[in-house]
Amino acid sequence: MKKKLTAMLLAAGMLLTGCADKTESSVQESSAAETTAAATTTEPESNRKRMVILGDSISAGYGLDDTDSERYGVLLREKLNEDAGAMLWEENNYAISGDDSSDLLYRLEVGRAVRLPSADIIIICIGANNMLGAYTDYAQELLGDRDIESLAEMEDSELDALEQELIEQVENDTEAEAKLEAAIDKGLEQLKSDLEGIYSYIRERNETAEIYVMNVYNPYEGLTDPLPMLEQPAGDFAQEKIDRCNAILADWEQAHPDLHAVDLAAAFSGWNPKPIIGSAGAEGAGEAYLDPHPNADGHKKIADLLYNSITKAE
């Protein structure tokens, strides 16, 4: 890839939020996935089991060559169907790239997840964008009117000039670190508040579904280059924030014993190489392409992790 440090980290922020895609096209894509899953199920309703997936770009399958066959929800459905006998599992995927916890709660409240009341299993993967949204917002502030997505189309000379310009802006912004920290704090506090709303909404409409909650992994583990506005290595900075996010999720799960915790963070840390689209494990950010979304192998691993959690709980 033709990205230097600053431009790459800006692109990484864009990618983890799925380009912050909250447009109509993203909603249509998720709806299409649901329709495809439903259309393949010809069994009577009494012979079906339903899996509902809620979350962000990871659950939506952002970055995969074929989301309808490679995302973990489809793979999990296939694995469950191998054990289902006369029953058939159906996947209803309402995940939207770029969503944070407030977006998810809003989509629930406006009736987005229409199959939720009849779900047998509900899978939730949310929280990453509550943190990363702060970084992408600051990146967009630095870029001004320029489109953050245009970075991928720039030549080396353009990226060099842009990097120098952004570095100068950050160096002259004495409040950069404070602004970033405050925005992340706000996002994590919002997560804590939204999770209770999400739980209440679900349980008011579905009292019996098994709910599985995945925590957040660190795709930048081991990355030692500093962030543009901080002296701290990118991997360490990400880990600190992710640990706080996962502590909030753990407290939520402890407050509601009917929630099943799925420790994606621990599993991801043990996978080598990291099953992501990018290559954050390169020697430095200058050699890495930092798309942190799971690749096809990563989705297989997530499906296996969920399958083991579900069958263990039965």
CATH hierarchy class name: Alpha Beta
The CATH architecture would be: 3-Layer(aba) Sandwich
Count every helix, treating DSSP H or I runs of 4 or more residues as helices.
12
Give the termini distance in whole angstroms. 45 Å
Kindly report the name of the CATH homologous superfamily. Answer: SGNH hydrolase
Q: Kindly state the mean pLDDT as a whole number?
A: 82
Order of strands across the main sheet:
2-1-3-4-5
How would a crystallographer describe the biggest sheet? Answer: 5 strands, parallel
Number of structural domains: 1
The radius of gyration over CA amounts to: 20 Å
Portion in strands: 5-15%
N to C succession of SSEs: HHEHHHEHEHHHEHEHH
Shape: globular
State the main characteristics.
5 strands, disordered N terminus, five-stranded parallel sheet, 314 residues, Rossmann fold, alpha/beta
